[in-house]
């Protein structure tokens, strides 16, 4: 069965442009893959940030872990398994104060595990996750395409093995109704074109 993993990261949920656009992507994907399965990971509802205790748990050998540490590793494993089982991934990312939501960064932190999702070789780091298509839907109040937030997301995805990344932007969302309509229409058209 073909599986799409949908990652949402907006704190405003279904009221956000990033979630609305990723939902549109999912609807088009489901129409193209009627037997497909969609797995949703909503980072706004639960995405613990990495701290000293969680980091220690990830580095503690399995036979030495406490129950609490094992729960941390189980959570990380669950996120990684969702990625391994996906045939395509769509990520909705709003821009908050010039950066990605902290919950999305926390998701990155629980996924980046040496020997599990990447490894270092004599030729540099090598990603270990399957190289499936990743669609990144980015929404911003101003115009920031190609800036630091994009660099972080694309760099991380490539680091763990994803090299087939498509960026879709809806920008200028804080610049009035006309700008919003233009941005959403443009992003929606890009999504439609992917399934044409």
TrEMBL record:
Protein's UniProt keywords contain Cell membrane: no
Keyword Kinase: no
Pfam families referenced in this protein's UniProt entry, alphabetically: Flavodoxin_2
Catalytic activity: N,N-dimethyl-1,4-phenylenediamine + anthranilate + 2 NAD(+) = 2-(4-dimethylaminophenyl)diazenylbenzoate + 2 NADH + 2 H(+); 2 a quinone + NADH + H(+) = 2 a 1,4-benzosemiquinone + NAD(+)
InterPro entries xrefs: Flavodoxin_fold (IPR003680), Flavoprotein-like_sf (IPR029039), FMN-dep_NADH:Q_OxRdtase_AzoR1 (IPR050104), NADH:quinone_OxRdtase_FMN_depd (IPR023048)
UniProt KW keywords: Flavoprotein, FMN, NAD, Oxidoreductase
Cofactor: FMN
EC number, as in UniProt: 1.6.5.-, 1.7.1.17
Residues that, per the record, bind FMN: 10, 16-18, 139-142
Cofactor comment: Binds 1 FMN per subunit.
Domain of life assignment: Bacteria
Domain Flavodoxin-like fold: 3-193
GO molecular function: electron transfer activity; FMN binding; oxidoreductase activity, acting on NAD(P)H as acceptor; oxidoreductase activity, acting on NAD(P)H, quinone or similar compound as acceptor
Role this protein plays: Quinone reductase that provides resistance to thiol-specific stress caused by electrophilic quinones.
Family the entry assigns: Belongs to the azoreductase type 1 family.
Assembly and binders: Homodimer.
Protein name listed in UniProt: FMN dependent NADH:quinone oxidoreductase
């Amino acid at each position: 069965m073909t599986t799409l993993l949908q990652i949402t990261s907006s704190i405003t949920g279904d009221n956000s442009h990033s979630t609305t656009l990723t939902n549109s992507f999912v609807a088009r994907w489901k129409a193209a893959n009627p037997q497909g399965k969609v797995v949703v990971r909503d980072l706004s509802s639960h995405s613990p940030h990495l701290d000293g205790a969680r980091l220690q748990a990830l580095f503690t050998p399995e036979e030495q872990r406490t129950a609490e540490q094992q729960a941390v590793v189980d959570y990380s494993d669950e996120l990684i398994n969702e990625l391994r089982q996906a045939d395509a991934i769509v990520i909705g990312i709003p821009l908050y104060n010039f950066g990605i939501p902290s919950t999305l960064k926390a998701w990155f932190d629980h996924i980046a595990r040496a020997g599990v999702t990447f490894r270092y070789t004599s030729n540099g780091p090598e990603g270990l996750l399957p190289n499936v298509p990743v669609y990144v839907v980015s929404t911003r109040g101003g115009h920031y395409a190609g800036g630091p937030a994009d660099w972080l997301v694309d760099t991380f995805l490539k680091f763990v093995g994803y090299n087939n990344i498509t960026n879709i932007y809806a920008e200028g969302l804080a610049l009035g109704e006309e700008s919003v309509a233009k941005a959403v229409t443009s992003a929606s058209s890009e999504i439609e074109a992917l399934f044409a």
